[in-house]
User: Which sequence fits this backbone?
């Protein structure tokens, strides 16, 4: 099993904690369908407001297994992505789309089971000037994303794991899940969380 497959076993929240509470994208970015999950190397896109030509280019140029990670220059009132682009991307083997903006054609995208994470849905169309960048560093929220960083998303949200921290993050995620498993067992035995974490002693209860 390769490192990306290892990362995919963990939740976005667990990986965020394993990264030292870093790497999280804005909480408004969620899957358009609750069961959607995504994991893969980032193919980064920076578009101009209300323009989506570079998204068409991105799925054409990206490699199978990549996740398109898109910043829309802070303009959300447009449907930058739809069902036809989803079909094209899925056919090429793209693993999914994470966009700091809105999309449309949600029912059709959900029906084809192509993972899309966005700020929401918007029926408003886009222009086609084509300004922006492809596969260069971008910033979404407080996170600097380099091409090839690993994107992991689920119902809770999206986290980006830097390439140089993949193995370290996996090790810390494994340790965290083992610790949580021990806590769950203590909870089943009737201990409360404040007892387990020592907070009742701290406050003198």
Assistant:
């Amino acid at each position: 099993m390769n490192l990306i497959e290892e990362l995919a076993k963990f939740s976005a929240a667990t990986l965020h904690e394993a990264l030292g509470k870093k790497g999280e994208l804005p909480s408004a970015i969620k899957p358009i369908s609750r069961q959607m999950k995504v994991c893969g190397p980032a193919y980064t896109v920076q578009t101009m407001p209300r323009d989506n030509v570079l998204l068409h280019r991105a799925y054409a140029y990206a490699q199978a297994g990549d996740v398109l990670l898109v910043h829309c220059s802070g303009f959300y009132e447009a449907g930058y992505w739809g069902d036809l682009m989803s079909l094209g991307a899925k056919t090429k083997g793209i693993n999914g789309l994470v966009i700091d903006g809105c999309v449309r054609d949600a029912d059709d995208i959900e029906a084809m089971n192509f993972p899309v994470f966005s700020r929401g849905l918007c029926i408003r169309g886009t222009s086609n000037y084509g300004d922006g960048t492809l596969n260069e560093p971008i910033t979404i929220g407080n996170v600097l994303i380099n091409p090839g960083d690993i994107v992991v998303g689920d119902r809770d949200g999206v986290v980006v794991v830097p390439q140089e921290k993949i193995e370290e993050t996996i090790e810390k995620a494994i340790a965290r899940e083992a610790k949580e498993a021990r806590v769950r067992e203590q909870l089943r035995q009737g201990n409360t969380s404040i007892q387990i974490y020592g907070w009742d002693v701290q406050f003198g209860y």
Observations:
- Helices lie at 3-8, 12-18, 53-61, 83-92, 106-112, 166-188, 193-196, 199-202.
- The first strand starts at residue 30 and ends at 31.
- The chain has two domains: 3-162, 169-202.
